[in-house]
Task: structure prediction
Amino acid sequence: MVKPVTKIDQIETMILDIPTIRGHVLSMATMRVQTAVLVKIKFSDGSEGIGEGTTIGGLSYGAESPEGIQSAIDTYISPVLLGCDGDNVNGAVQRIEKFVKGNRIARTAVEIALWDGLGKRLGVPVSQLFGGAVHGKLPVAWTLASGNSETDIAEAQEMIETRRHNIFKLKIGKRSVREDVAHVARIKKAVGDAASIRVDVNTAWSLQDARWGLKGLQDAGCELVEQPVPARYRRALAELTSGYEIAVMADEALNGPEDALAVAEANAADVFAVKVAQSGGLKRASEVIAIAQAAGRGLYGGTMLETGLGTAAALQLFSTIETLHWGTEFFGPLLLTDEVLAEPITYRDFCVEIPKGNGIGATLDPDKVAFFRREGGRNMKAAAGQ
Result:
């Protein structure tokens, strides 16, 4: 007897606005609310899959906004997938890419829901669909982004004492290079060898600023600098990578496997920050990882500050990677004032644990989803320029 095809019956989207526990200061915006687009796919056999597409700081960070992500899914992606084989995720990915250009975060949200549904139907975690997990937990960094040295020092020391984090990434780039370097140096001196200190400039520096910045950060004991110059300045990234001992990490320069290959060929980074959403989904992120591995680049699990849902999906993929030289930053749920999962992801002993269960290992809490769901008259400002 031929098994009937499990078809994609319905794709539903919703926007959640969840406050952050404090202002999250980036070089281009200060986040006080994180906005996530959730996707629920219903299949013809009655099964469901869930996914998430999340960006940072509205349109100040990248080309996709939460509202645009939802619109792209509802208006363009859903119509080309309805009625398709829900078990053929590769086919769905290729179909989306044929009819929808760019919009990587929107594509990611739908693809995660497809993998989640497939894993649930097969009775296996998504990690199994990518070869199987080789880790049950991963090192996880915390971002210090208050902008105040004393506040950040107190926060870091508390994290170390409670064994939650001993890797810290500092968001810099809003102030002068001299001020930023002094800020990082104060924090590194305070934590000493008890923690690893890295920085993220979020493309804010010119090449001239970056030369001074990397020298000062290196002298201060900082170990890594993320995306110091704009993504399009690949030659500048290459110059900085070859000019200093401090590791240079590409982030905004990586938007899928094509970018990964170009960055590797140009020797424009020592480390790849691989983000599922920025790559265009779990499949494309796995290809970025493969390119980094083949090119001998270090790997780091990057985040778009997803809720527990998107974080669970990323953990499924990164649990299959043998060596993560620089760990991960899958702390998104900890930055939010509340959890949207029925069973939150576990953080302890400086690590984040891989969720157990089929699919991505995450179940939404319907009451929390209903509370944070954006309705017609309820709209929260996600970021401010100051």
Q: What stands out?
A: The first strand starts at residue 8 and ends at 25. The chain has a mean pLDDT of 94.
